[in-house]
Amino acid sequence: MLDVKALDRVHVQLEYSRKSRYGSVFLGSALDSGNVSELVVDTVLGRNDIEVTSNYYDACCTVESSAILNKKAMHSGVDPPVIIDLSNATWKEVGKACDNIFVWAFDEYEKVEGFVESVIRTNSDTKDKIILLIQRNKKTWKIAFSLYHIACPRGEEPYADEAFELLRQTLVHKRVEVLLETIDSDGYFMGALLESNTHVEIPLLKAGLAKLEPGPSYHVEFCRAQDSAITKKLKIWENNVEPYRNYN
Question: Which ranges of the sequence are coiled-coil (predicted)?
Answer without folding.
Answer: none
